[in-house]
Amino acid sequence: MGAMGEFTKGLLKENPVLVLLLGLCPTLAVTTGLSNAIGMGLAATFVLVCSNLLISIFKSLIPKEIRIPIFIIVIATFVTIVKLVMAAYFPALKASLGIFLALIVVNCIILGRAEAFASKKNPLLSVIDGLGMGLGFTLALCLIAFFRELLGSGTLFGIPLVQGLDAYTQKIFILAPGGFLTLGLILFVFGWLKTRHDKKQMIRKNLEMGREERGKELLGGAEYIAAYESKNSSHKS
Amino acid sequence: MEWTFTEYFALMFGLIFTQNFVLSQFLGLCPFFGVSKKRDSAVGMGLAVIFVMTLASVVTMLIYKGLFLNPSLEKYHMAEYLDIASFILVIASLVQFVEIVLKKLAPALYKSLGIFLPLITTNCAVLGVTQIKLTEFARPEYSLAQAVWLQSLYGIFGGIGFTLALYLMAGVREHLETAMIPESMKGMPIAVISGCCMALAFFGFQGFV
Predict the structure, then answer these.
(1) pLDDT tens for residues B4-54?
(2) Could you tell me if B50 lies within 8 Å of chain A, comparing CB atoms?
(3) How far apart are CA B106 and CA B38, in angstroms?
(4) What is the 3 state secondary structure string of A79-104?
(5) What is the C-alpha separation between A85 and A101, in angstroms, rounded?
(6) What's the whole-model pTM score?
(7) Which of A215, A223, A235, B53 could make a disulfide contact with B155, Cβ separation 3.0–4.6 Å?
(8) Taking CA atoms, what residue in A is nearest to B195?
(9) Which residues of chain B are within 8 Å of residue A178 when distances are taken between CB atoms?
(10) What is the pLDDT of residues A81-115, one digit of tens each?
(11) Contacts of residue B28 in chain A, CB cutoff 8 Å?
(12) d(CA B145, CA B139)
């Protein structure tokens, strides 16, 4: 996979939240508004890129047995940097992210990339991978936050869209149950699109290979298999 | 500053129902969805989390208030901004330590909890529990012993709330196995939506205390 592939895979195909289902806690906790989502996404991206870079530079020096504690300390260092910088320049954002800023340390995405990618590949690819995964995380947060903020408070980035929209908003969407509901429905749509895409590709591949029968069999699905099995069993008897 | 019975009760009830770690504060969602397929393993995970959370609460509060904020150590400039890095180290080594001790002293318990212990290091509920009330309990009105006591209660009841949510979720998911569910809804999406229903039910306790 080229450098471009490493970058784009994090955005959609291996999106950390919507496909790999990692880092769900910050995903649900900070998506009550779009500005929070972007702040959290960029903070996590910064930590991810820096920790990937540092770990891939020192990968040959890190003893295998204690690599996880070392990764965690590296990540914790960068989280502390982000926390102090945010306290100095963006105190409002820090207050609304609350403890979830500190909890970037235990975000499975960052430790997962350190373990699965940065400890094996070269620094440049690791930075690109971190950037792609971080932006994929940010995109997923924004997608969820868009629906939750729009339906829950009728605003985007804190700006009301239409006058008098407040009367129609459902407060439940910015509370805990609405977070679960939005994520569940988005995962459902993603899963549906993915199975449809996979099925189409399989059919196309089979048609290209000139095996139209096989393609029809896939289209027919369950009934075809049932008929096929009953035919087989009748043969045996 | 002494706490009244009402305050203790509010703390307990809040952590188990109204401010449940999983269902209203979004902490520890990874094990909530990852280890909730069977009720037995949910109980095992829950017990391990209660255990580690309580110990982590005691140790981190001792470090924060007794070392970082200690007035007699002020001239050494004990750095309170090191809380995240030191706490995560404490939790990671605590998990290792608990694993070794259990293996030696209670092999039966180790066998049932053993596989869940390494997962707890990256459970955000454990780091979360040490962070949420950190500045509140570390205020000068409380003595060191009181701060540690309150923080450990916070850990225990937080862990119990987590276990309750995990156990209920496992019960729901065991039934989902046999239910008729649309193909793309199977697995994670339906689990998250069941989580929504449970969060809605727990939301009903709001304003109780």
Answers:
(1) 888 888 888 888 888 888 888 888 888 888 888 888 888 888 888 898 899
(2) no
(3) 23
(4) HHHHHHHHHHHCHHHHHHHHHHCHHH
(5) 12
(6) 0.84
(7) B53
(8) A180
(9) 196
(10) 999 999 999 999 888 888 888 888 888 889 888 88
(11) 25
(12) 12
